[in-house]
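Schema walk-through. Below, the input block comes first and the output block second. Nothing else is stored per chain. Lengths vary across the set, and this one has 399 residues.
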Amino acid sequence: MQELLKRFELIKTCISLEDHTIIDLQLPLLKELTVSSASDAIILLLERQLYIDAQQAIEYFIKSQHGLISYEDAQITAIRLELKTLEQRLQNLIAHRNDAQNSLQDFNREYHLNLGPVVLRVLSLQEQIAAQALAIKLKSYRSLETQFKDINTQIKNKKEHINQVEQEIEAVDFLSDAYDELISELMFLKQELGVLEAELEEVRLQAKAELQSVKKDDDGIFQQHQEAQQDSDSFEYEYEEIKSSVTTKLDADEKQLLKKLYRKISKLCHPDIVSDELKDKAHELMVAVNVAYQEQDLNRLKQLLIQIENGGELTCISDVIADKEFLLQKLKELKELYQQTLDEVQVLENSDSYQTIIQMDDDFEGYFAEQQHELEQFSQALEQELAQLKESEDMAATV
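--- output ---
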């Protein structure tokens, strides 16, 4: 009722200003707010442009309602208006941020789907090159490692032999010649074992020193190999995830509709805008909406929009709060959120990927064709580099 009365007051002012344009704009809103036959009659007079009768009817209607309603503090009205306009600005900014995020997400998805195989080949070759370079670097260490394992095997065998001889000694007469022979053999085996254990420790120390020497080199070969493995594994995982998530291929018109639906739904139910008691519901809906967008599921987005529209409007904060202090607190929170969202937008728009998208001017096909050609050339160069590394290792092995 309060909003209806305020709009009738506005109509009175417009009549005094002889401005029928604003009156025409108010009529659809008045029809949504009308509560009685009296207000219906006023709207009918305004539609017929009978402004003298309409003005008198409005004055009578307002006077008749004075004893039935309580008017709000003017400052509360101003705070609510500022909050409402900030909500709208925040909605638009969030929509802009979402558009930027979705553009980056779309670009990343198309990048993987179009260039995934050749990128995987490049990353695999880089990993093989790093592994080959590391193998060459660790050649001395690997030789010592093999030597260590061989000596360790000999020690194990020697200990088993010693154990066997000790068992044979226990089985013969300690005064017999066989006993003397076995004791001599046992002493000789223990001497050999001591030599092997000393040799094993020497090789271990050499291997340790060699590995430390390699790690101290400034060429960063260990880190390069580790990063190459991580890059290859990470991209392959992401590539497989994207391939499995996209089950339908949308044409250009369907993609535009997908973006339009996402934008509309996010404005209707974004958790940052709705009242506190509806935040959980809005959050659940946005999770479902984001999943549907990521999977390019146009039908699912249509279903979610119908669900939201049929489930009733998710009211904004400014529509349900009447307490002045609470309104001021929410206004402060929204201002902080607006600035935070604005910072996020600036970071997104300044990113290299976003700038690439802007420069592409929606020519994804041309961009990916050019990247495909460059990556294939790079792949060929990497194959040659890997072949040369293997050849140099083979030549070193024959020397």
